[in-house]
Amino acid sequence: MSGKIPNNVDLSSDRKLQRALESWLPKYLDWWKEMGPEGFQEDQIYLRTAVSVETDGWAHFDHVKMPEYRWGIFLTPNEKERTIGFGDDMGKPVWNEVPGDVRKELRRLIVTQADTEPASVEQQRLLGQTAPSLYDMRNLFQVNVEEGRHLWAMVYLLMQYFGRDGREEAEDLLLRRSGNEDSPRILETFNQPIEDWLSFFCFTTFTDRDGKYQLGALAESAFDPLARSTRFMLTEEAHHLFVGEKGIARVIRRTADLMKNAPEGDPREVGAIPLQIVQKWVNFWYTSSLDLFGSEDSSNSATFFASGLKGRWAEGKEGVYDDHKALEGTYRVEVPKEEGGFEDRDIPLRRAMNLVLRDSYVDDCKKVMQRWNRELEKSGLSERLYLPSDRFARSQGLYAGMPFDPQGNLLKRDEFEAKKAQWLPTPEDREYVKSCMVQCKEPGEYANWIAPPKKGINGQAVDFEYVKFTRPN
Ligand code: BYC
Ligand code: FE
Ligand code: FE
Question: Does ligand 1 lie within 6 Å of residue 151's CB atom?
Fold first, then answer.
């Protein structure tokens, strides 16, 4: 467990791997200092660190400087005799090495997963400077260091199982940059800027939630080390989703509160975030996150399923699916026709696996919406938030680039352009939201636009000193 890199993979007995990881460590730290949270590297943050994989007691809380965070490698312990749970090789023993015939696909899946982790840290690197409280600042940095650890988890797999190719991929993961024109991150959502906290809360609600479902699908994998790595990552992911959902709930509560004295007025006059703005941010990040599931009809997804690389959500859970081969059955979608209108297409089930996984994700998002709307109801507001149609504002799949409205109606292009500003963030909206973002640095102090949380972290008070500044900044 000790040494430079905390782990439960017996690193000290594998000198070659240990050397590879120890030579990657300084490069990772250089990347962290350059691209991680800007301006807070010397401060003491109240962080949770993964120290083991015990269900209770895996986490240790303490004030630490982020560059001294102990990023480690943890896999959920081996289940004895696990067998492959789906696809062509169902029932055979899981793999502890990479079979030659799926090496390329598996490497690509791991690299794609890995790439999102540092990307999100890059996207969020300036947010500390406008944190609405020390509590929120701490949560941001917690998410950031754990995304860093997720990168470690994937780099371990690349270095341990993919030899020289894997080591090269590990280097490249530190070279691509979110939003960079020449060397962008792989998936589009991870090249979008996150410049305000409303975006951060929507991102952690909708994009980290894509992470939950993708990791869940990989946790079913026939490649056991991948399954066990992603399982442990999921335990950390729950907090990221919490930060996002509660963040938006607190915005809603605060807006309702501020509007009590001026129910007919413009929320902006009292420094509140209007609910129409919240809705636009939801529209943007939710639809961008739908894109992360890839196309509805995908031969890649059929290959991943057939070969046991990537399953469905809860594939291994009793009573969810009867048929784990998915050789029969189809999934019906409406495909836009060249001359206008739609026609039905039945996609063979295996080719529709992106959509099947996305459906599980959408169901989960609907529940989040219900909880936010209950918050609105309790606050006595009549407005409600909604999830836009999966055709709206898409860049991937069947409806990519087409002018649908949030209800899923196809509009004329110019009508869409004329109305777009009602549905998606405008430069003026962004400017207003930015004007609300002010840093609050006293324990217990919260920015005007957001309600304090009901509870602190790890049993601490909401006015606990979650961040101790080394020098005034
Ligand atoms: N942007 O056959 P298709 C997380 C590409 S989030 C750009 O439909 P496939 C986290 C696609 O690569 C979870 N390109 O795709 C969250 C393909 O390219 P080629 C991340 C895209 O392969 C917050 C082409 O379009 N994990 O952990 O079935 C903070 C045809 O597409 C996009 C994973 O994604 C896009 N959105 O599915 C921190 C799991 N979508 O072959 C972390 C691993 C598609 O033409 N990845 N393309 O060059 C996968 O399972 C699959 O690669 C995807 C795509 C589901 C992403
Ligand atoms: Fe992650
Ligand atoms: Fe996350």
Answer: no
Q: Is the pLDDT of residue 1 over 50?
A: no
Q: Which residues pair with 334 in a beta bridge?
A: 344
What is the 107 CA–ligand 2 centroid distance (Å)?
Answer: 17
pTM (2 decimals)?
A: 0.97
- Over residues 56-103, the pLDDT tens digits come to 778 999 999 999 999 999 999 987 889 999 999 999 999 999 999 999
Report if residue 322 sits inside a domain. Answer: no
**What spacing in Å lies between the alpha carbon of 212 and ligand 3's midpoint?**
8
Query: How far is residue 95 from each of residues 81, 99, 104, 223, 316, measured CA to CA in Å?
Result: 11, 8, 16, 5, 16
Q: Do residues 255 and 273 make contact, with C-beta atoms less than 8 angstroms apart?
A: yes
The tens digit of pLDDT for each residue in 110-128 reads: 999 999 999 999 999 999 9
Q: CA-to-CA distance for 404 and 410, rounded, in angstroms?
A: 4
Burial class (CB in 10 A: 0-12, 13-18, 19+), 289: buried
Give the domain extent around 232. 11-315+329-468
Q: Decide whether any atom of ligand 1 lies within 6 Å of the 211 Cβ.
A: yes
Looking at the domain assignment, is residue 184 inside a domain?
yes
**pLDDT tens for residues 12-48?**
999 999 999 999 999 999 999 999 999 999 999 999 9
Residue nearest atom 5 in ligand 1 by C-alpha distance = 294
CATH number, domain containing residue 180: 1.10.620.20
Q: Residue whose CA is closest, atom 10 of ligand 1?
A: 211
Q: Is residue 324 in a domain? A: no
Residue nearest to atom 19 of ligand 1 (CA): 300
Q: Is the CB of 279 under 6 A from ligand 1?
A: no
**Could you tell which of 229, 285, 303, 354 is best to mutate to test the pocket of ligand 1, judged by most ligand atoms within 8 Å of the CB?**
354
Domains in the chain, number: 1
- The protein residue with its alpha carbon nearest to ligand 1, atom 25, reads 294
- Domain presence at residue 1: no
- For the four alpha carbons of 11, 31, 208 and 382, in that order, the dihedral sign comes to positive
